[in-house]
């Protein structure tokens, strides 16, 4: 994805201030965020209450990495009805790279399935579209 916002400003908004900002700009996606454990750094666990515009109620989100210098953020969705019965967790990495005056947003996701379960490409595509929607907002 691309953005006209430079990496430092985008990282601050989308990562560092996300718990306050996203419920305000996209309440249909995220109703609120509460810290269950930690101080906001690596290892912090958050419960994200999803908005009325979603089919799910919540997810638990654990911060796996936070590099404020290189604008890299990694986290895992470890619990919640959005995971369903086939997925143990989903791990994400977001990296912001300068491009002219703006940014290129690179995301990687890894789906960790339970046992020998498999997920459909439509589920992955749906997750990508939701993430893209938040980036655009």
TrEMBL record:
Keywords: Pathogenesis-related protein, Plant defense. GO terms for biological process: abscisic acid-activated signaling pathway; defense response. InterPro entries: Bet_v_I/MLP, Bet_v_I_allergen, Plant_def-hormone_signal, START-like_dom_sf. Residues 7-118 form the Bet v I/Major latex protein domain. SUPFAM superfamilies: Bet v1-like (SSF55961). GO terms for molecular function: abscisic acid binding; protein phosphatase inhibitor activity; signaling receptor activity. GO terms for cellular component: cytoplasm; nucleus. It holds the Pfam family Bet_v_1. Belongs to the BetVI family. This is Putative allergen Rub i 1. It comes from Rubus idaeus. The lineage of its organism: Eukaryota, Viridiplantae, Streptophyta, Embryophyta, Tracheophyta.
């Amino acid at each position: 994805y691309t953005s006209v916002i430079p990496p430092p400003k985008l990282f601050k908004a989308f990562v560092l201030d996300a718990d306050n900002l996203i419920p305000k700009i996209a309440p249909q996606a995220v109703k609120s965020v509460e810290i269950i454990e930690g101080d906001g750094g690596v290892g912090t666990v958050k419960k994200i209450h999803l908005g009325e515009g979603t089919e799910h109620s919540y997810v638990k989100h654990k911060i796996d990495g936070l590099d404020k210098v290189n604008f890299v953020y990694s986290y895992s969705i470890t619990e919640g009805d959005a995971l369903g019965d086939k997925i143990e967790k989903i791990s994400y990495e977001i990296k912001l790279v300068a491009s002219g005056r703006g940014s290129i947003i690179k995301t990687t996701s890894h789906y960790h399935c339970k046992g020998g379960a498999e997920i459909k490409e439509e589920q992955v595509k749906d997750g990508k579209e939701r993430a893209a929607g938040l980036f655009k907002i």
